[in-house]
Design brief:
Layout (H helix, E strand, L loop, with lengths): L9 E5 L2 H6 L12 E5 L4 H12 L8 E10 L9 E8 L5 E3 L3 H11 L5 E8 L6 H8 L5 E3 L2 H10 L5 E9 L12 H12 L1 H12 L4
Parallel strand pairs: 1-2, 1-3, 3-8, 4-6, 6-7
Antiparallel strand pairs: 3-7, 4-5, 4-8
Helix pairs in contact: 2-5, 3-7
């Protein structure tokens, strides 16, 4: 648990091995406090189990939680390698989790990966890979991107205690750029490189949450 000499830790959750590889070294810590990078496994059920189990550790009881990894963009004009900062996550069961410090995240991401487009808006959850018409249907709800773990990760984190939460995703495919397999085509490689570059932005966002309010 955080004290004056031990600030609240940061938990960064991702699902896939390739995402964990991009975030390699992220758990070495930052100026904002200790950092844990968790690979949850793919899908909402795996994310819920993994996050529940880890946050039961007293050392992480008040951890800030950030969900990250790849996503499917829903808005026309999105490209692989674009970033999505969730203003809120929407779970398949209708749960909505507001995110914290989104403006600061956008600012830090633009600094970490200059030249990359950063979108902000609702991030919706799904229990399967979304393609074709379903992508258009989700965009019609106001969501700008979809993934399988972020909404459940943040909802689970808040259910276990009040804490700052956020979600940042890198677009790996988009309406005009659908991929078959992550990492085998140019879009997947671009998304991997962007995810690898954004850890400093996560650290700065976390550190900003710990600063006294003026």
């Amino acid at each position: 648990m955080a004290t004056a000499s031990a600030p609240a830790p940061l938990l960064i959750a991702c699902a896939l091995g390739i995402e964990r590889l991009a975030l390699r070294g992220g758990d070495r810590g930052s100026a904002g406090g200790p950092v844990t990078v968790l690979r949850t496994g793919m899908g909402p059920k795996a994310a819920e189990r993994a996050v529940t189990r880890l946050l039961a550790d007293p050392a992480l009881a008040d951890a800030t939680v950030l969900a990250t990894g790849f996503c499917a963009g829903l808005a026309p004009g999105m490209h692989p390698g674009d970033l999505v900062v969730a203003e809120e996550t929407r779970g398949p069961g209708g749960t909505v989790t507001p995110c914290v410090g989104t403006e600061r995240l956008v600012k830090e991401l633009m600094r970490a990966v200059p030249g990359r487009t950063v979108h902000s808006g609702p991030l919706t959850g799904s229990d399967h890979v979304v393609r074709g018409q379903e992508r258009s249907d989700l965009f019609a709800t106001g969501a700008i991107a979809v993934d399988m773990e972020s909404a459940v990760t943040l909802h689970t984190a808040m259910r276990s205690g009040t804490r700052p939460v956020a979600a940042v995703r890198v677009v790996v495919d988009a309406p005009e750029h659908e991929l078959v397999r992550i990492g085998t085509l140019r879009g997947g490689i671009s998304a991997f490189r962007v995810l690898r570059a954004v850890l400093p932005a996560y650290y700065e966002w976390h550190r900003s949450l710990l600063l006294p309010r003026r």
